[in-house]
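[DERIVE STRUCTURE TOKENS]
===
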Amino acid sequence: MLTKHKSRSIAAVLAFSGTLTIPGLHKFYLGQPLWGILYVLLSWTPIPKVASAIEGVWYLAQDEEAFDRNFNLGKSATRNSQKVSNQVGAMAEGMRQLDALRQDGLISEYEFEQKRRQLLDQIS
């Protein structure tokens, strides 16, 4: 759970469910097990239930970027997928240009193959 992207809505649902069931599940989900254990140990008092409700509202009040800064090490899932998409697009464009140079006879088949391998090595 520590390396997976955490969802703001799931954290909020777990926090709100802590007001009715076992408080602290949202803390385990967000990678804060010590706080989760403390919530469970204090579950016989109203303190963790109130804190869970407040945190549920706080999670929903934050925008995605603020939540990502706090709980996802500042990494947004959409930003990462857009970055990969841009890299793939740039790689495809480079391959097209390389193929056009080969077809026009400006580079040899050997040079084309070397450059193509260099581009593919950048992917992995």
Q: What stands out?
A: Helices lie at 8-17, 25-29, 33-41, 47-61, 64-71, 77-103, 109-123. Residues 12 and 120 are 42 Å apart (CA to CA). The mean pLDDT is 84. The chain has seven helices and no strands.
